[in-house]
Prior knowledge:
Immunoglobulin-like
Amino acid sequence: MMPVIRRSLFILGCLFAASCNSNSPYYRVQITAPEAVSLMPGESAQFDLTLDRVGDQPGELRVNLESQPDGITLTPEVVLPEGETTITTPVTVAVAQDIQVTGTQRMLLLATDSVKDFASGATFYVVVLPPTVAQPDFSITLEPRQITVLAGANEFVGVTVNRIAPFAGPVTLTVESPTRRISAQPVVVAADQTTVNFLIYTQSSLTRLPVPITVIATSEDGRQAKTGLTLNIR
């Protein structure tokens, strides 16, 4: 549900021009957190958020989620006490069942230092995937549900077809993408197969952002099961 790739987001507490002055205090905050989280309506995910800082007279530092749409929350507020330099806090990002948006949502992890009267932010993405569509006698699941891909490279995702008797036929896998720069060749999952590796193709001109696509399984009589996949394009 969550990416294993983690990144550090650097926040400079003074302008570059000021940092060139030897009399200016040095101040740096590093936030380590997942690059993006993919969730369906009604889901939540927990991860560790780590704050590290170096600076003179460090005050209480608070990190909150800003610029998020209604229905996305990050709790609890992360607080680094005055005078301390590092803290790791488990936080939970949640998407409400009745959220009105889908797709990639760009937000801000905002850090505020009470003593420095300083605030700055770093980008954080939540990808709201559409709810899974299942048929009465078959559905599909993905492992993982979010993959990191270099633009122009190709990557496999594991797809499992869950059949319920009496259905025992083949299904054909395809993708539905918001851009033609992401594609896949149709793959038939034979009646005696349950899990296959499905190859996703990308083009080098893709923007380096998380992109949600839909994996579709179609039976011989035209019925479809669907589920979402996030490609974290780098």
